[in-house]
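sorry for the late reply, my laptop died twice this morning and i had to redo everyting from scratch. anyway the thing you sent over, i finally got around to it. pasting the sequence first so we're on the same page, its 146 residues, then the predicted structure underneath. double check i copied it right bc i was rushing
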Amino acid sequence: MPGSSRTHNLGPALIQTVRSEEPETSQIEIIQALVSKGAAINYFEPRLTNSTPLAFAAIGNRIESMRFLLASGAGPNLHDGEFIALIATIRSKNMDIARALVDAGADVHVLEFKRLYTILVFCGTAELLRLLLERGIDPNLEDRDG
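ok and here's the structure:
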């Protein structure tokens, strides 16, 4: 289908836009235009990137872009097991983005693939820990090291 191929081809442009150094106000306009033209909101190409547009927006602290992507149907739990938006957000201690991700359904029990660490390993503030506990994380959850 021609439309399907064209939509798929907009995925890399969406990721490049989210990863760009553009001011977020300019970036979000481009993201909105790409999504309105049918860009695949959950585009993932392992040979080119390690994650989705949403993960790149979260990791880049682009909260308005991230909120737009979530409102447009981006999945907060899509990842390759290595580049995980919620873990990266917890590592950077960005409470607003962490809250937006868990509010959108991000799995607080996610494990980092390579080391199988729980998200609690990266939780460096009481506020983030409280958020995860409120969302049901098991404080006794063990990683591969116990």
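The chain has seven helices and no strands.
thats about all i looked at so far, will dig more tmrw
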